[in-house]
Specification:
Elements lengths: L3 E8 L5 E8 L6 E7 L4 E4 L2 H11 L5 E9 L9 E8 L5 H11 L6 E3 L5 H8 L6 E6 L2 E4 L15 E8 L14 E6 L2 E4 L2 H15 L3 E4 L2 H15 L23 E5 L2 E5 L9 E4 L6 H16 L3 H6 L2 H15 L17 H7 L11 E3 L2 E6 L2 H8 L33 H21 L5 H23 L11 H24 L2 E7 L2 E6 L8 H12 L3 E14 L5 E10 L4 E4 L10 H14 L5 H6 L1 H16 L10 E4 L12 H11 L9 E6 L7 H4 E3 L11 H16 L6 H8 L10 E2 L5 E2 L6
Parallel strand pairs: 10-13, 13-16
Antiparallel strand pairs: 1-2, 1-8, 2-3, 4-6, 4-7, 5-6, 8-9, 10-11, 11-12, 14-15, 17-21, 18-20, 18-21, 19-20, 21-22, 22-23, 24-25, 25-26, 27-28
Helix pairs in contact: 6-8, 6-12, 8-11, 8-12, 10-11, 10-13, 11-12, 15-17, 17-20, 20-21
Length: about 775
């Protein structure tokens, strides 16, 4: 057993030290804080006279501790060491401010800064070979990890986890908070604490001390629970030293404010961050990754990235991947640029047309199909980057002008003398993911261990997917657009070759998206062995092609113009599992009514074993739709299952058209609640024809169980959902709405549904 576990490293409030949070390795598992002096410098590269001027200008500044000369390789593009200026800030929390002042002194162009925004905790991990959740032993005055961070099978400390939730007088969870209501109760773990507010805060502190959790789990803790607790503590005159939720006092103010930002064409919002020194605060609603990776996957990412678990849970997978790149760069004696300063290379118009393309996408045939095998390359783009040594510093390098590793169609050369930073980072991650998958399939693996490994696999999948996208991201530290173009070019060439190989082996291509192919046999009496085909293709192309399964049937959906949409389909594997892409159940804004409707439609379709049987089920499917419509039209559907969720793309006063979501925002604003771009509003449609924001919708925060809704609006949503699923069978929303609005059908039109209930048939057109 190790002496202790290193849970986390945080910055001391005085700005001179870091705090190592160590959990004893004995049965008691006591957590203690160990302070170490640590003020890492940042580096400045540039002309010698400029560096001398910076040293002269900032020596003696109250924000500067020391300035010294060093000889090091500044970046991955440099082969030889250079004379650099190492500037150590007086306080760690003034690091970025000082670097910005140095940059401004050079007019933002004379010098290049390195290692500015790496957190001191991250740098401490890297300098001393540590990482979060490492088993450590005492060595002299420090600590050393006893297991490598890259280990696949590793021990974890026993972590105590408690739930935290605050309740306010007269405010239901998720409701509108008016004024500054007092606390009525606080849940800590399994304990529900109540009483006078001043005593309640004291009891919260005592219960935290008694349970001593390592992780506090909340649902909207950053947006509701912690702000409420801190606000009420301040209102009652408690200081930061008298009331705190971590193992050490911390400011009542958030460490990072809430913000809205745009990414991949979407406007997103991230709540303010309230980290707790000595404990991990995980807000499940303020995390993109928690739903897929859970704690097991997040811990794996924290170990590899050297980022705190509290950082990993709140950031994107790209932040983890960038941190891993930084770790590899620093370990090899180079440094991390403060800002990306490498422009795109000049291209002619013809070169732009050739290079600026994505992966291969086929146009699927609309309709219901069977006898389909699906194949998918596992982490295709990361494998391409590793196989072809594609990295920002290896592409068109000066050392290999006659390289034989050339990007097809583009002519970009890859270095053949040294392995690039991106492949060095991705290679171990790919091997790790394969090792986890092999461990899941290994006989004797328990269900609990298998689930833990699946969460790690999902976390790695997100990181690997991001690795490709970051190559084209304009602010990625080690990204480069030519690298992004080269990856796509290699992928296009690969798919073209794979299609030819599949046709040689007796298949015909039905559909394909970038790294996936849907194949059907040319002769159904001589079906190729899909497992053998995947193995032989993997060997031939030196990339892992996986066999996803055989479909009993699959439905490719049309666009408004009738053409097939590549990423909208659903199908049933022979294993009995569904695969859904681009249908309502996959969208975050789908009301529960439509989820139930689609679920029942798919449950009925599960009975079909091939395409003809799917078509034969149409009368029963329409009968089920008719049953739902009757309940909605009669206003018998529970109003809480009709909530529509809409993500805002701009402030309310920037919208020109009066829509349901605009009405919802104005209703919230009238109640004193504002929503920032990237946040969501939830509402029920009360009267779609109304031009009054008071009557058009009812926001979730003000919704009452007896509120009425607009049946016609929800019938239109149902008709659209039914058309999405059943359009290849001839179903159109206009025909459905006409039938549903026609009133009770004549007795001669009635027939029995699969449950034996009397239903009306629906027009299929």
């Amino acid at each position: 057993m190790s002496d202790a576990w290193l849970l986390d490293i945080t910055e001391d409030r005085r700005g001179h030290d870091v705090v190592l949070w160590l959990k004893d390795g004995d049965a008691a598992g006591r957590v203690r804080a160990v302070r170490r002096p640590f003020r890492p410098p940042f580096l400045l590269d540039g002309p010698r006279e400029h560096l001398r001027a910076v040293a002269e200008r900032f020596t003696g500044s109250p924000d500067v501790a020391t300035i010294e000369w060093r000889t090091e390789r500044p970046s991955i593009f440099e082969r030889r060491p250079r004379r650099l200026l190492a500037i150590t800030p007086e306080r760690n929390d003034r690091r970025r401010r000082l670097a910005t002042a140095v940059d401004a002194f050079g007019g933002y162009h004379r010098g290049t800064l390195y290692d500015v925004d790496l957190a001191p905790a991250q740098l401490y991990h890297l300098r001393f070979g540590l990482y979060p959740f490492a088993p450590v032993e005492r060595e002299g005055d420090g600590w050393v990890a006893t297991v490598s961070a890259d280990a696949v099978d590793y021990p974890l400390p026993p972590l105590r986890i408690s739930r935290l939730a605050a309740e306010l007088h007269g405010v239901r969870r998720g409701g509108i908070v008016r004024g500054d209501p007092a606390l009525s109760a606080v849940v800590v773990g399994d304990a529900r604490l109540e009483g006078p507010e001043a005593e309640l805060l004291d009891e919260v502190m005592r219960e935290l001390s008694r349970q001593d959790p390592d992780i506090l789990l909340t649902d909207d803790g950053d947006g509701f629970d912690l702000p409420c607790l801190y606000r009420r503590a301040a209102a009652l005159g408690r200081s930061e030293e008298e009331f705190f939720l971590g193992r050490e006092a911390v400011s009542f103010r958030p460490a990072r404010p809430a913000r809205s930002f745009a990414t991949y064409g979407q406007v997103m919002h991230r709540e303010a961050s309230f980290p707790l020194p000595g404990r991990f605060h995980l807000d499940r609603e303020n995390s993109f990754l928690y739903g897929d990776a859970a704690i097991d996957g997040l811990i794996d990412a924290a170990r590899l990235s050297r980022l705190s678990l509290q950082t990993v849970v709140r950031q994107s997978p790209g932040t983890c991947f960038t941190a891993m790149e930084m770790a590899h760069a620093l370990a090899e004696g180079t440094h991390v640029p403060f800002r990306k300063n490498r422009p795109e290379e000049f291209k002619s118009a013809h070169q732009l047309v050739e290079a600026d393309r994505g992966g291969v996408i086929f146009l699927p045939p609309v309709g219901v199909h069977d006898h389909i095998d699906e194949f998918d390359f596992a982490s295709l783009y990361p494998h391409i980057m590793v196989r072809h040594n594609l990295s920002t510093e290896t592409l068109n390098c000066r050392c290999c002008p006659k390289s034989t590793e050339v990007t097809p169609g583009l002519g970009y050369r890859s270095c053949q003398r040294r392995v690039g930073l991106i492949p060095r980072t991705l290679g171990p991650l790919l091997e790790r993911r394969l090792a986890y998958k092999a461990a899941i399939r290994r006989p004797g693996t328990s269900a609990e261990d298998a689930e833990r490994l699946r969460r790690r696999v999902k976390m790695l999948k997100w990181i690997l997917v991001t690795a490709f996208g970051y190559q084209g991201y304009r602010n990625a530290r080690f990204g480069r657009i030519e690298c992004h173009e080269a990856i796509n070019a290699h992928a296009r060439e690969l798919i073209v070759r794979l299609v030819g190989y599949a046709e040689e082996r007796g298949y015909r291509v039905v559909h394909g998206i970038v790294d996936s192919l849907w194949l059907t046999p040319r002769d159904r009496q001589a079906w190729p062995d899909p497992e053998e085909f995947a193995r032989s293709a993997s060997t031939k192309f030196d990339l892992p092609l996986g066999y996803e399964g055989r479909y009993r049937w699959i439905v490719f959906l049309p666009s408004r113009h009738g053409l097939g949409v590549p990423n909208r389909y659903y199908g049933l594997y022979e294993s009995g599992a569904f695969k859904l892409r681009g249908v309502g159940s996959r969208r975050h804004d789908t009301p529960l009514l439509l989820r139930r409707f689609e679920g029942e439609i798919l449950d009925l379709m599960k009975r079909a074993t091939d395409a003809p049987e799917v078509a034969a089920l149409l009368p029963r499917l329409l009968a089920r739709a008719d049953r739902f419509a009757e309940e909605v039209r009669a206003r018998r559907w529970p109003v809480e299952e009709l909530l529509i969720t809409h993500r805002l793309s701009q402030p309310v006063d920037a919208y020109v058209t009066f829509t349901d979501s605009v009405a919802a925002m104005r209703q919230l604003a009238d109640a004193g609640v504002t929503r920032a771009p990237g946040e969501t509003v939830r509402f029920v449609i009360r009267d779609r024809r109304s031009r009054s924001w008071r009557d058009r919708v009812r926001v979730a925060e003000l919704l009452e169980p007896d509120d009425r809704y607009d049946p016609q609006a929800y019938l239109e949503l149902m008709a659209r959902a039914a058309e999405t699923l059943l359009a290849p069978l001839g179903v159109r929303r206009e025909g459905l709405l006409e039938r549903w609005n026609a009133g009770p059908a004549p007795e001669r039109d009635r027939y029995r549904s699969v449950e034996g209930r009397t239903q009306r048939p629906l027009s299929a057109s």
